[in-house]
Amino acid sequence: MKLMKVVMIALPILAAAMPALAERAYSPEEQKNKEIVLDFYQKALNDKDFEAASKYLGKYIQHNPLAADGPEGLRGFIEFLKKTYPHSKSEITRVMVDGNYVILRVHAIREPGDRGSAIVDIFRVENNKIEEHWDSVQPIPEKSANTNTMF
Amino acid sequence: MKLMKVVMIALPILAAAMPALAERAYSPEEQKNKEIVLDFYQKALNDKDFEAASKYLGKYIQHNPLAADGPEGLRGFIEFLKKTYPHSKSEITRVMVDGNYVILRVHAIREPGDRGSAIVDIFRVENNKIEEHWDSVQPIPEKSANTNTMF
After folding, report:
1. Is the Cβ pair B105, A23 closer than 8 Å?
2. A101 to chain B, closest Cα gap in Å
3. pLDDT by residue (tens digit) across B92-130?
4. Over the stretch A77-111, which tens digit does the pLDDT of each residue have?
5. Per the CB < 8 Å rule, is B126 touching A22?
6. Which of A20, A123, A129, B85 could form a disulfide with B110 if both were Cys (CB 3.0 to 4.6 A apart)?
7. Neighbours of A95 (CB within 10 A)
8. What are phi and psi of B31, to 5 degrees?
């Protein structure tokens, strides 16, 4: 009975401390890639600080059709944000990692109170540098056929 | 010298047979999740065969604002595609896996010759069933600030 009691007390504590069973353990390199992208994203999109963000950039091959290739393309985008949407915010709602790829689900708002856009960003990291970026940006429509939100 | 010759012949063959170093080895469950999503996507989006696609569906919590929740939402979407865009095609250009998540980069074309849309689909698979879906769909613009395409 005593053992049973210990188990009944300890199990929920253990369960709360452990990641959900569905989550896999990242390799140290994957963990590092995730941290690089999360810090880069915060510096670039929310702090709008090109100097701080650009230290993470390698070649930065750009697949977003609105941005030029390389770090200079990011500089231009951050300048545009600072000037046109200084209060814009990008909230990461989900992070996935597959080796060198870090994938972010993001809710981006240009002006406070906007519905905003539902974005997926894909970054490829190599040797601790962000080498490539793809994304899809979809404005959130006013009405939805379900009640789950886009996030 | 003989050993060196063997190595020099064998190395390129081995290199060609192995995945790139950057790719990580998926667990058997991740490999299965990937296969499920790829077959589901082909059956649903290209074959437009709801019966074949729906065998993979669990609850199918839907975050695409145009589709109703659950398998019935997919049925409605496939019927819409068959009727309105019978020649639509979805080409997967990149596949990423993180545990229960399978992420697809997709080039979707509704009519042959269209520029089409750049999509990211995210699926959550649990016990061999697709339980949840998120996406962002962006029409490909006519002009781009870089020459890399969106894929």
Report:
1. no
2. 8
3. 999 999 999 999 999 999 999 999 999 999 999 999 999
4. 999 999 999 999 999 999 999 999 999 999 999 99
5. yes
6. B85
7. 16
8. -60, -40
Q: Who among B134, B136, B149 is closest to A63 (CB)?
A: B149
pLDDT digits (tens, 9 = 90+) for B23-44: 799 999 999 999 999 999 999 9
Closest-approach residue (CA) in chain B for A117: B136
Q: Which residues of A touch B146 (CB under 8 A)?
A: 62-65, 67-69, 73
* Integer Cα distance of B146 and A65 in angstroms: 6
Q: In the sheet where A117-126 sits, what is the strand order?
A: A57-62, A129-139, A117-126, A101-109, A89-98
Short-list B133, B126, B136, B78, CA closest to B105 = B136
> Is B27–A24 a contact, with Cβ atoms under 8 angstroms apart?
yes
* Ranges of each domain in chain A: 2-139
Statement: B2-139 belongs to CATH 3.90.79.10: no
* pLDDT, position A23: 73
Interface size between A and B, measured as CB pairs under 8 A: 136
| Predicted complex ipTM | 0.86
Radius of gyration of chain A from Cα atoms?
Answer: 19
> Which site among B74, B96, B147 would you substitute to test the A interface, given the most A Cβ atoms closer than 10 Å to its Cβ?
B96
Which whole-number Å values give the CA distances from A96 to A3, A92, A138, B138, in the listed order? 39, 11, 19, 21
Give pLDDT, residue A144: 98
Check: CB of residue B138 under 8 Å from CB of residue A137: yes
Inter-chain residue contact A63 with B138, CB threshold 8 Å: no
Per-residue pLDDT at B70 exceeds 50: yes
Give every CB contact of residue A38 below 8 A, 6+ residues apart in sequence.
Answer: A92, A95
Q: What is the mean pLDDT of residues B72-80?
A: 96
